[in-house]
Amino acid sequence: MNPITILGPTATGKTQLAARLALKFDGEIISADSRQVYTGMDFGTGKDLQDYIVEGKLVPYHLIDVASPTEEFNLYRFLELFYKAFTEVSSRGKIPFLTGGTGLYLNAVLRSYSMKEALSGMEYLSALDSLSLEELQARLRKSNPRLHNTTDLLDKKRVIEALRIAESTAEADSFAEIEIHPLVIGIHLDRQIIKDRITRRLKKRLEEGMIDEVKSLLRQGVSFEKLDFFGLEYRFIGQYLKGDLNYNDMYQKLNSAIHAFAKRQMTWFRKMEREGVKINWIEGPDFEKASLIIEQHLKRN
């Protein structure tokens, strides 16, 4: 059963819309968000779990809270978990609803990236390069317990290449690829409306405990460098907690950065369209309009 994808920039209401549609069409949500996979990262990632409660019912969701902030999560891991969730949801006769704002993850599914493509991509290789030699060595030994050539463990570049080959052959080849023919619905909103929503949401999350959440991550052993990797909210609040920014500068810089991020998301979605992904755009999270598009799609298929 092919997925129905709901995408759009941050603060456009895509999660709530996807949950309402999933309830109506007997589906389940598969998240495509590179940060909501982490436990204990709720405010900064916009993990509004109440959005999955529709008419008093919890709409099942997947790929949220599946990794620790201290471990690595990348495109390859996302694809692995996505295909497993997709297969599981489909096997129960449910419609998978893919939703999120991470363009790289969405594009990988919608354009049917193979696992090997993910394993050779820059995002995967950059993630490996960010690990220490000791971490890479441990991961390589786990992927290839029969490793005999110990010289592969002495140089970081050789370890990365050996690991890429080991994970490609040991895991990607053993995982069944699924050809995806999705229906894609995109939410469009006026840029000023998005800006206003982002600003209101940021103020609310700061008031509700986003700074305390970042403090908790630091206490767990997450470094300031890792906070920077986690994205805008964690980067700027980390700078504030380090004393590099005062509160007002942190807020202003973070607010502006999220606005710019929303613009980049739209640029990414337009690029996906140019590369062949058909997106059915609707104005705002219009439940009736989206429902009509899905009904027509289901009749044709």
Average pLDDT score = 89
Find the structural class using helix and strand composition: alpha/beta
Query: Which oligomeric state applies?
Result: single chain
**Count of helical regions:** 13
What is the share of helical residues? 40-55%
Note the main sheet.
6 strands, parallel
Strands, count? 8
- The CATH homologous superfamily name of the largest domain equals P-loop containing nucleotide triphosphate hydrolases
Quickly name the level 1 CATH class of the largest domain. Answer: Alpha Beta
Report how far the terminal alpha carbons are from each other. Answer: 10 Å
Radius of gyration: 20 Å
Describe it for me?
By secondary structure, the protein is α/β, with parallel strands linked by helices. The chain has 2 domains: 4-114 and 177-300, Rossmann fold (3-Layer(aba) Sandwich); 115-176. The protein contains 13 helices and 8 strands. Strands 5-2-6-1-7-8 form a 6-stranded parallel sheet. The protein has a two-stranded antiparallel sheet with strand order 3-4. A hairpin with a 2-residue loop joins strand 3 and strand 4. Helix 6 packs parallel to helix 7 and helix 11 runs antiparallel to helix 12. The longest helix has 28 residues, at 247-274. It is globular, with a radius of gyration of 20 Å.
